[in-house]
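One record is given unchanged without comment:
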Amino acid sequence: MKVGDVMTRRPAVVGLDTPLREATELMRSKIVRHLPVVDEAGQVLGIVTDRDLRHAAFVPELAEHVGWEPRRVKAPRVRDVMTWSVVTTREDTLLVNAALLMFERRIGSLPVVADGRLVGILTERDVWKGLRRERGLEAEPDPFLW
């Protein structure tokens, strides 16, 4: 089985200057934990995760306690909290190899690219479902929603 067989096509994406509030609402409405960050041409620039957004939520409180002036804590944007050095994969990569990469790098998703442009995203959920299907097992309730 290959990544292209199980990846999520046309994932929700954000741009560098997307306000964090908007990125948070997009994650909530789409029920996702990872948003690829792309430019106008669809090239992957990085990724922003729910963990990035949770960490960013502390900045205003920390700023107050360390004496930063309120103007120093501007409305944060995706570019301020995202991971710039994103690991990607391709549609023709074997699913097990992509899964091992995710496990070794301790990452929850891989943007899928073709010709430098985003074509999908492979998440832990996709891997779980794909590996179970490959073994001929029934899909069980989502193990990642607790």
